[in-house]
Structures are given as structure tokens and as C-alpha cells.
Design a protein that fits this description.
The chain has 328 residues and is an alpha/beta fold. The chain folds into 2 domains: 3-216, Spore Coat Polysaccharide Biosynthesis Protein SpsA, Chain A (Alpha-Beta Complex), CATH 3.90.550; 220-327, no CATH class. The chain has 11 helices and 9 strands. It has helices spanning 19-30, 74-84, 103-108, 126-129, 133-138, 168-173, 188-198, 221-241, 265-277, 280-296, 301-327; strands at 9-15, 39-45, 64-68, 89-93, 97-99, 116-123, 151-153, 163-167, 202-213. Strands 1, 2, 3, 4, 5, 6, 7, 8 and 9 form a 9-stranded mixed β-sheet that branches. Helix 8 (221-241) packs across helix 11 (301-327) and helix 10 (280-296) packs antiparallel against helix 11 (301-327). The relative contact order is 0.12.
């Protein structure tokens, strides 16, 4: 297939005060090898003040369209980019993502599949993995090529906007992205996947579509726990809007209040254990143990378990706080 026969691709990058990170994302698009005459890149600046607009003055082999809007959040920025787009396939990429070569081509190869959401695989850069025991134990490494199939179907709750492809007509038919919680993180990706699933769409993870996620939260347990607590807080609003989603998000299964006449005995026990494990004294002890393990046994598997329990404790705190505010 020559360049003229390739589908026109619109890569949409929402950004907010991450100029240096955005430039890394744009440079990775230069290395894709996809015909530049069949590629357009749309950067939507969500009201930042770090000089992001200067990227429009740089020279790239592909057309770069810079759009600025008042701060409305990433979901609104992605939708704005989609409205400005012309491609048959929209590829949404976050501004802390570095695409590996040929990722755009791998996604574009499936642009003709109807009622499908295409997902890439996000990995953690070696620089971040080497920075701390926490990053090494919880970060993901680059996957090996399977060689058995071009894609695999995944559950809708795995929908992530960091690297997502969807046919333009399907995107608008699904109602674009929405902000289901009104706060960051707002779960717009999972909510989009849920609506797509209800409408009969498949979510496919495309083999060979890989990108590095330069996630600052992985720099420390503290940063990750702050994000988990915020996500869980807004998750309470998500589940109030979509109650049936709860059965598909196991991270919240034992975090809610005990329903004595409804919960089975096993779930009641799990909730009681979670309540105790998430208490301030127990969390304090676990954090002290983390300090000891990180200093003397940073590769010990017990450290991974401690990270997991502490993270779950912050999810518990955020979710319960969200539930309390909703019921006021």
C-alpha cells in the first residue's frame, strides 16, 4: 500500500503546562515512519501558561495545528481536537507519552474495523524504573511481541486515553468523551469504554502499538498514593452515576460501607479487614516497614505487597470520603 492509499490519521494531543513533555511526544511522532502527507497532529492547549504556544513555531514534517481553549479539562480538550480533525482515524495521545516507532502505523492498519476501540500498550521508561524501588516493583516493562495475532480483545474497563484509536465517525456516534465526575481524575476513559461496550463495540489491544508513559506519579509511593486517593474520591461519583459499573471495578469491591442485610458474609469480612488495614495506626506501621525494606531489601517481594496494601488504603480513604460527600 503506497502513501496515497493509507488512511488519513489525526493524532490529538491535549496538554496543560507540560511543554517539555509535549515536545518529547511530538518528537516521537516524527519517528513513526507513517507517510506525513497522511498524518495531521492537533495539539489542544487547555489554558496553560508555560509558553506551550511556541510549539506551533517549530518545524515538523507533518502538519501541526495548535488550538488553545480556556481551561476545561482533558476530556473537553480531546473533544475540541476531534472537532478540528479531518482524519478517518483519531488517535488520542497524552502529553506524557512517547510513542515507539511504527505505533501509528500499527493502529492505522485497523482503521477500517467498524465499532472498535483500538488500544496501545503503555510501558514505563527504564529511566523511571531505575529511579526507585517503588518504580521497579510497580512499573511495567516493555512487552514482547506475541507473534500470534494482530490484536486481542480486552475488557472495556481497560480503556485508557493515553494511547487510543477510534474511527472519527464512531467517536461522534458514541457522543465523544464526557466528564462523568467533574473532578480529576474524572474516569472519562473508563466511562467512554463503558458506553462503547454498551453500544456493542469491541476494545482491541493492538500488537506492536507501544508507547512509554512518562508518569511522574511513579517517582514515589507518596505521589502514587495521592493520585489513587483522588481517583477513588471521584470514583464514588462515577459509581453513583453508573451503579452497575461497580461489579467491573474490583478496586472498589471492599471499600464501601457494610450493607449488613445485603452483603454476603465473605464480603463483610473483607470490608472489616480493609477498614482495619486502612486505619491510621496500621498504615503508619506499613509505611515504616516500607522505609526499612527500601533501604535494606529493595528487591524483596514483601515490599511489593506493602506498596499494594498502602495503595489500597488510600483508595479506601478517597472512596469513603467521596461516598460521605455524596450522601450529605
Amino acid at each position: 500500500m503506497d502513501g496515497s492509499e493509507r488512511p488519513l490519521i489525526s493524532v490529538i494531543v491535549p496538554t496543560f503546562n507540560r511543554k517539555a513533555s509535549l515536545l518529547r511526544t511530538l518528537e516521537s511522532l516524527v519517528q513513526q515512519g507513517y507517510p506525513v502527507e497522511r498524518l495531521e497532529v492537533i495539539v489542544v492547549d487547555d489554558g496553560g501558561d508555560d509558553g506551550t504556544e511556541t510549539v506551533a513555531q517549530r518545524s515538523f514534517p507533518f502538519p501541526l495545528h495548535y488550538v488553545r481553549q480556556e481551561n476545561q479539562g482533558a476530556a473537553a480538550a480531546r473533544n475540541q481536537g476531534a472537532r478540528q480533525s479531518h482524519g478517518a482515524l483519531l488517535i488520542f495521545v497524552d502529553d506524557d507519552i512517547r510513542l515507539l516507532p511504527h505505533t501509528v502505523e500499527r493502529l492505522a492498519a485497523h482503521a477500517d474495523i467498524e465499532k472498535t476501540i483500538l488500544l496501545g500498550t503503555l510501558t514505563t521508561p527504564t529511566e523511571i524504573l531505575a529511579s526507585s524501588p517503588f518504580a521497579r516493583l510497580v512499573g511495567s516493562t516493555r512487552p514482547a511481541e506475541s507473534g500470534n495475532s494482530e490484536f486481542q480483545q480486552v475488557p472495556f474497563q481497560n480503556c485508557m486515553t493515553g494511547l487510543l484509536g477510534v474511527r472519527r465517525e464512531d467517536f461522534f456516534a458514541l457522543g465523544m468523551f464526557q466528564d462523568p465526575t467533574g473532578g480529576w481524575p474524572n474516569w472519562d476513559d473508563v466511562e467512554f469504554g463503558y458506553r462503547a461496550h454498551q453500544a456493542g463495540y469491541r476494545l482491541l489491544r493492538v500488537d506492536g502499538a507501544v508507547a512509554e508513559h512518562w508518569d511522574y506519579a511513579l517517582s514515589s509511593l507518596s505521589h502514587t498514593c495521592q493520585r489513587l486517593e483522588r481517583a477513588a474520591f471521584s470514583g464514588a461519583t462515577l459509581l453513583r452515576r453508573y451503579p452497575t459499573l461497580g461489579e467491573h471495578l474490583p478496586m472498589f469491591a471492599d471499600k464501601g460501607p457494610i450493607a449488613w442485610r445485603q452483603d454476603p458474609p465473605g464480603l463483610i469480612c473483607r470490608k472489616l479487614v480493609r477498614q482495619i488495614a486502612s486505619s491510621a495506626p496500621v498504615m503508619g506501621v506499613m509505611k515504616q516497614l516500607v522505609c526499612v525494606f527500601e533501604r535494606y531489601a529493595p528487591e524483596n517481594t514483601a515490599l511489593r505487597l506493602l506498596y499494594r496494601w498502602i495503595g489500597s488504603g488510600y483508595i479506601y480513604r478517597g472512596y469513603r470520603r467521596g461516598v460521605r460527600e455524596i450522601t450529605r
